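Hi support team,

I'm opening this ticket because the web form for multi-chain structure prediction keeps timing out on my end. I have pasted the exact lines I submitted so you can reproduce it. The total is 874 residues across three entries, so I didn't expect it to be a heavy job. Is there a limit I'm missing, or should I split the entries? Thanks in advance, R.K.
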Amino acid sequence: MLNLLRMDFYRVFRNKGFYVCLGILIFSNILLFGLLYMLADPSARQFLLEIGGVIKGDFSDLDTFVSNTTILEIYHQGTVGAGFFAVITGVLAALFVCTDFDSGFIKNIIAAHENKWDYILSKCVCLCTVNLLYLVINFGVMLVLNMAFKGFFKPSKPADILFYMLCAWLLISAFSMLTMLICVITRRFAAGVAWAICINSGLVTVILNTGLAIFGLGWITDNTIYMNLFNLPQVFNGTYVLRPVITAIAFFVISVILSKLVLAKKDI
Amino acid sequence: MFFLMAAFVLIIVILAVLLILYIREVRHLIRQLELLEAGSHIELTTNTGSRVFVVLYQKLNHIFSTVRSRENQHLRAQKQLKQSVSDLAHDIRTPLTSASGYLQMLEDCTESEKQLRYEQIIEKRIAELKDMLEELFLYTKLTSEDFSPELQSTAVFPVLSDCMIGLYHVFEEKQIEPEIMFENEEICVTATPEILGRIFRNLINNALLHGAGGLRVIQEGGSIAFMNLVNNADGIEADRIFERFYKADSTRKKGSSGLGLSIVKELCLRIGGTAEAELVNGNMLKITVSLPVAKPVPHL
Amino acid sequence: MNTQYAVKTNNLSKLYGTKAAVSHLNMEVKPGEIYGFIGRNGSGKSTTLKMCCGLVHPTEGEISLFGCPVTDETTRRRVGMLIEDPGLYPHMNARDNMILKAKCLGLTDFRSIDHILELMNLSDTGKKKTGQFSMGMKQRLGIAMALLGNPDLLILDEPINGLDPEGIREVRECLLTLNEEAGKTIIISSHILGELSKLATCYGIIKEGELIQQISRKKLEAKCRDYIQLKVDNTDRTAALLAENFPDLHFEAADRNQLHVYDFADPAPLTTLLVTNGIQVHSCSLHQMDLEQYFLELMEGGRRYA
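Hello R.K., no limit was hit. The queue was backed up. Here is the completed structure from your submission:
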């Protein structure tokens, strides 16, 4: 398994995909930060009006809003909670897994490794590492920007950050594993990407939620990954912790086991 | 306190994992060694990639491949020997078969003229056979460890001239006029007249028997080059020309044992010189013998 | 061990639904052989070879490589394979692909990569991505990847597909060297029977999933000898003489000056007869049909050769 892991890491860091996706996310975060800064900071607002921009609305609340919002909340509201982050990592996961099948390299891998767990687990560890790197790097960028603009947003407590990161990481990795499962079943890049876009962005979940809520069954969708990610608290309080973690781990483990079974069953 | 306990547990877990990985790696190595024992040639591979094991595997692989290449060399040498013996047998068989055939015809023949002719042919074949075996014995003697002639300063030009004169009738028969271009006709090398004579005779014979005409001998310092035209330059591999029994065209010419040039090379090496061959201008063969120059001996 | 087979399948079958792609296949490949696997498209060649590599699980039967089951991972390291199209990442260059395979196998020394690339004439591809390679280059890279780790058994499915004559010759020489000097066992399947006949020491012929014949090269050559070809100056007189002296002889006049004699072992009595009767025999040779013809006839279920 470690051999395949080394191989996967070599491939991930050697290809453009990793850096392109990271770039997209960093860019989105910077954009978000910049936009909020433009609107919330009085001097910036003045600058906008001067260059001929027209701003509608009342901004008296905005200042208080800004000083009360933690950087973590902004991070969450920006790319993570809304699902964009999960979509990007989902697409990267689909690309990563489907290239093996499309190119036929999977033949080389399976010929050398009879035990399918080697393949599944190495992909698992690799994708989780990539997700972690993405989360940490993006948050790092936000922190740096915040400090550069002299603590524009309220800083978050370290415990909160740790908790949030852990849960977000588990949930996003669960999404990646689900995407991997679809890729192993269909072996098509198009299917994997379509899944990533529809499911990871929460499109399907939200529609489902609306539909089920009519029948009072809205609580079912509260156990999906997306809803947990969306509702992820940015502060560490006792009881609410369990649900995202358990949901994430459940989806994670089930996807991994199913992937292995499907891979073992089907011929290469 | 809690953190200390957690850290402790974590360390234990990590150590346990490492231990398990190392043991598995050793088992993997044992399994691979079993395969190698069974005759496999696979390169040893690692499962964990830890530094110590990688170095171990690299060294083991190196040792095994060295052993294997030595084995291969040995096998190749054996094969070459078998091939040489087979070639020799082949070369001997032809004149012998011919002589035996003529003997049979002689027994059945009654005309005295034909009888005489057959007898002459049989004699010639036997003489060829004798020459061939002589060459072979000479070659064996030269390649044995005991051969250590007393070397002295020998003048080159006189020896060459003697050889040329000795083979004059062949030159005439083939209508070839040799060109000799010596930079320094007084040049001397460390050898013996017999050795030098044998080298030159074999080289001239080679040119006369297998060449397409023309012979030029050029001397520069200790290097003496013999150049002659050849017919099938593409079929000649210049670096194999000194191999025992190597013949450039498969239809082996009569009267040649295939050892002439091997003897030349062997003699050169024995007296501390070299012999090299190359194809020049696409149609000429150039064999250069480089011999150690010695101080000239005053003329007697 | 020399007493065991490099590859031995026992009653191997693979069913897709109700259709049997491979049925009751008993293949035996001795170590050090070059086994030529012949069969039409869709006859089950690729499926069988995939099963030998562990890519496809058999429905029935077992495969053993060098005496160990095919599911044993360490034994699988003794096999290098190229099946169907070479599995290459299109967005990476040749060297990276080799490095990835080397890491996958767990090789410790990457110098062998450059050595193998040189062997296959791929050292100067540099940064060119494999997606832009010509088919011949991809095939060569596929063979190169199969050679990583110095496997004892090479399973090559149509390796010369898409190569130009120069490339075919190079691959052939390379495979022969590997077989003679390194003692590798090679299973090679190809459509180009002429090429295969230059390489193989043993043939396995598969038709509709069944191995209809497994035969060594010597025995095949013996089987392929079909007639004695006599070139004479007077075919009529020759025919008469043959009919008179060998009443049961089966022969036919093939040409103005040629006679074909079937089912006759030794031409010596024939030539002696003809010459003593004043016929000029220009040539007398044993004609051998080529592999392609033999194979086609076998597949058609045509003339049987006992």
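A quick check on our side: Chain A has one domain: 2-265. Let us know if the file doesn't open in your viewer.
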